[in-house]
Amino acid sequence: MVSIIVPVYKVEKYLNRCVKSLLQQTLTDIEVILVDDGSPDRCPAMCDRWTLKDKRIKVVHKENGGLSSARNVGLTVAQGEYVGFVDSDDDVEKTMYERLYTIIEQESVDFVISDYIRVPKEGEAYLKTLDIQGGHYNKVMIKEHIFPKLIMKESLEYGPLLSVCSCLYRKEFLTNCNLTFDEQVRWSEDNIFSAFAGYFANSFYYLKGEGLYHYYSNPGTITTSYRPGAWDVYCIMNDHLRSFFMNVQEYDFDKQLKLHIIFYACNCLGQVLASGKSKKEQGNLRKKIMRSDTLKRAFEDFKFPDCWPLGLKVQVAFIKYECVMLYGMLMG
């Protein structure tokens, strides 16, 4: 009934924990698709060993192409009526897929989303919940409550449908809407996929307060690490979103698209600051970001939201007016 797609790349410390949590599901009619994305460590052999332990596990070995590519390969071999995605350095509650399956069948929706538990490197785990009400959303409610923050909120935060890993999707919905992951977007791929899923969905159900997925803050994630080329990827993502959402009739997404690339500019500039590179190298990287055409386009006719605190307004103003040195002094 349910296909669970797990991309695998350099996660030998966490892989067994993840797979065990899936095989212990109270919903037993599942298949677990481990997609080895050309991992250079022991992960390929670990995946193969798991197929000997449980016939519900499938393994696909492929050349490295990134998370989006791995998830897409998983989609091509998935046999389930419903599809879920799990990152191989996370794990899930043993009741997760039984609960999601029960709701998606009962409510006849395109997808169901739960909350998740954030597990930091230090300190206690805590529930992450969305700033929308729980329950059933039809198309009218989606347009009224989700579209205004589908891509990016005015507060410069992600929209409510971001995490694909806490969702269960009707495979027919994904197929009919031609929903796959953008393989040119190697990082933050959930952002673009969830925006399209939220736009095309006729209905979904939100299990508010139920933290069924466990998201671990493991070292080396995109939010904490500088990655060469990340800014170029985010510009591509924004271009792809813009090419679609600027041509829809139901809602004006222009401001959200501007907020989207401004958010990633702040994100990338923060990564540059924490990269350990020399001041000269950091300055050159800041110039590249601040002077990019994609960012300049976002600042055209852009008014700072009233909800922004003063510090954020100053930070973004320095970015807008390409104050490279002042930005370094402010944030450093």
From TrEMBL:
Glycosyltransferase keyword on record: yes
Keyword vocabulary terms for this entry: Glycosyltransferase, Transferase
InterPro entries: Glyco_trans_2-like (IPR001173), Nucleotide-diphossugar_trans (IPR029044)
Gene Ontology MF annotations: glycosyltransferase activity
Positions of the Glycosyltransferase 2-like domain: 3-174
SUPFAM superfamilies named in the record: Nucleotide-diphospho-sugar transferases (SSF53448)
tRNA-binding recorded as keyword: no
A Pfam entry, by short name: Glycos_transf_2
PANTHER family: GLYCOSYLTRANSFERASE (PTHR22916), GLYCOSYLTRANSFERASE EPSH-RELATED (PTHR22916:SF51)
Name this protein carries in UniProt: Glycosyltransferase 2-like domain-containing protein
Organism whose genome encodes this protein: Blautia pseudococcoides
